Structures are given as C-alpha cells and as structure tokens.
Amino acid sequence: MTDTRTFYDTVAEDYAEHFRNPLADRPLERALLAAYAEQVGPDGTVADLGCGPGAVTAHLAGLGLSVYGLDLSESMIAVARREHPGLRFERGSMLELSVADGSLAGVVSWYSSIHTPVDRLPDLFTEFHRVLAPGGRLLLAFQVGDEPLRLDRPWGRDVTLDFHRRRPEQMAELLSGAGFVVRSSTVRGPEEGRGESLVPQAFLLAQKEG
Q1: Cα separation of 167 and 142, whole Å?
Q2: Nearest-angstrom CA–CA distance, 188 and 165
Q3: Which of 51, 55, 47 is nearest to 22 (CA)?
Q4: CA 120 to CA 124: how far, in whole Å?
Q5: How many CB atoms neighbour CB 95 within 10 A?
Q6: What pLDDT sits at residue 86?
Q7: 68, 88, 140, 161 - which has most CB atoms within 10 Å?
Q8: What are the CA-CA distances from residue 138 to residues 32, 50, 117, 203 (Å)?
Q9: Residues 37 and 63 sit within 8 Å (Cβ to Cβ)
Q10: 3-class secondary structure, 199
Q11: Residue 144 gets which letter from DSSP?
Q12: Cα–Cα distance between 182 and 172 in angstroms, integer?
C-alpha cells in the first residue's frame, strides 16, 4: 500500500492529464458502465473504489447514480476534487472501508485491484461483499495476462510500480469464493498502438445474493 500511495501521489498530475478523457473512445466500456448503472439504479449509493482523478466517478454520476470516489492517494483525491467539485471524494483503503455492512447498492473497481497482490484478493473481495447490500452489484475491470507490467520512472518521475494482470476465470473463482455470483464476463481484445490496451481487457459483473 505504501508503494502504491507513493507512486500515485508522485504522478497524480501527469496521470490525470494523460487519462483526461479515458472513456472518450471506449464505446464498449461506456456501454458496460451504462448497463451497470441501469441495473443498480439511482436509489442507493455506489462507491467508485480506487477512483484516481475521478473521471469514471463523474461518468457514473452523469448516468444518474449516487456515487462517490475513494482513493489511497491524497494527491489523486486533490485532483479529483478540483476537476469534479460537485462530487464527493475521500481518501482511504479498499481493503479497510469505513462503510457499514450492507450499506452500498454498488461497488465499482475500475482497474483498481491491479495493485493488490494475489494473496490479498480474497480479502479485497470479502470487503466488497461486506459493504454491499443484498442484491448489490460489483463491476470489476482489469487487464488480462499472467505477468505483471512494471512501470519504471513514468513521465520521468522517480517511482516504480507493478501492474498485475489477471485471468478472468481466476478472478471469477475468487469472487465466487467471497460469496458473489458472477453475472457476466466480457473480454475486449487488445488494440494495436494503444499503450495500456496492448493486452486484452476484462470486465466482470457480479452480484451479492439476497
């Protein structure tokens, strides 16, 4: 957690500028987020966990959800609050949420589980399950693969971090073990010349039974 926080505190402004409109040319991702928003509905609260500079949080709010963002990095939260002043953003850890049991209608983890070591994923998914109300929905996005991507000195900053890639079937099994029912699994193929999209991207929609 310390390495992840330090990395994103250091690159927050660069990251926010580079990913200023991350969904602009992503029709599949927008469709998946729209379907998720329709299933969750406007009545409950949704947490965008690992929200970064808040672009996806703002997109979800634009779809009619009552949503707030949480991130480990204070610098990322500062950017999110500046860029989206009408929304709520908090600093905290996904592994230890200050949220009552069963109080959320939805959880979104949009490429935020990629820094969680594989042996801590059961703890992470158990925490997601804890905070969701019965029938609540989880949307999980991640890159597909077996080997991590190591970013060394991005944008010339003196930091390094591993970005873990996972297999959808592995993640689905872990979600089931935490008490979720996986409702859908979508994999988008890699895109030539798109940097972070040079590997397949996976999107799992899961639900807490009840």
Answers
A1: 9
A2: 14
A3: 55
A4: 6
A5: 15
A6: 94
A7: 140
A8: 12, 13, 19, 10
A9: yes
A10: coil
A11: B
A12: 7
pLDDT of residue 81: 97
- Alpha helices by DSSP H, listed for the chain, are 2-18, 27-40, 55-62, 74-83, 121-131, 168-177
Angle at 126 (CA atoms; ends 78, 4), nearest 5 degrees: 35
91: left (phi over 0), alpha (psi -120 to 50) or beta: beta
Nearest CA among 124, 69, 115 for reference residue 92: 69
For residue 197, the model assigns a pLDDT of: 61
55 DSSP 8-state letter = H
CA atoms of 144 and 169, how far apart (whole Å): 10
Closest CA to 115 of 82, 79, 88, 151: 151
Task: Centre a 10 Å sphere on the Cβ of residue 91 and count the other Cβ atoms it contains.
Answer: 15
Tens of pLDDT along 118-132? 999 999 999 999 999
Cα separation, 57 vs 118, whole angstroms: 26
C-alpha to C-alpha distance for 45 and 2, rounded to whole angstroms: 28
Contact criterion met (CB below 8 Å) for 163 and 4: no
Q: Tokens for 166, please give them.
A: 């996972």
Distance CA 91, CA 51 (A): 10
| Helix 74-83, helix 55-62: angle, nearest 10 | 40
